[in-house]
Structures are given as structure tokens and as C-alpha cells.
Sequence to fold (131 residues):
Amino acid sequence: MSEDKFDRFERGVFQIFRLTHLGEMQWSRKNPPQSLTGGTNSVFPYFFEAEYGGKRLGLFQERYRYAISETEERWGERVGLVLLDSAGDVEFEFPLTPFTDDLFEAVKIKESNVDDFLNVLMQSEPHGVKI
Fold:
């Protein structure tokens, strides 16, 4: 892949991150499509979808096992961003960029409403006591 194409993908993922951070792109948690999970022993604990410009995006975390030796296995994980077709199947998987993990963490935090929970929790802190 040429440097210019990778740079374009990197800028695109950063733009998705920016729109998500600003609240202009909304994500919702869904079940991952069969075209992503089928034929694997992987686990997909998170799969989110968003729509932008008439296209659907999928953002996922995949956990998979891999062999270290004939008798030892380990778990690995990766985060991925995909473009979905009209049937909800994976049409394209974006190359991993430095912003993909940041995008995943931002979406996970927004969708879990952890900020709202922390705000309520901090309001219950006794007056004059700061951690």
C-alpha cells in the first residue's frame, strides 16, 4: 500500500474519531455480523455500528487464541474498523492506524455512559473531602 493511501486511511480514521468525540457521529452496540465472526474461534466482546454519509461503519474488538508451541496457546486481541454493505456484511476492513485504538476506547466509554456514572458518584463525595 502506498504511503499516500495509508496517510489517507489514517486521516479518515482520525476524522471518525473527531466526529465521535464531538458527538457528531453516534455509535450503538450491536451483534457482530456473521461475515466477521463466521469460520473463526474468536470472541467479539464489543461490536458497535454508526452511520455516516449513507454508509455504515462497524467497530469491534476481537479476542483470539494463537499457538506459541505445540502445547501452549495464548490469547491476543485486536481492534478493527470496517465498512459494512447494505446487508450488514463486511465490505472493507480499514488498515490499523494509530487512531483505531483511541476511537475504540472513546466509543466504548461513550456507549457505557461511564461519564454519567462518574458524575453521579462524584456528587456523593462528602463535602470538603477530595481524593
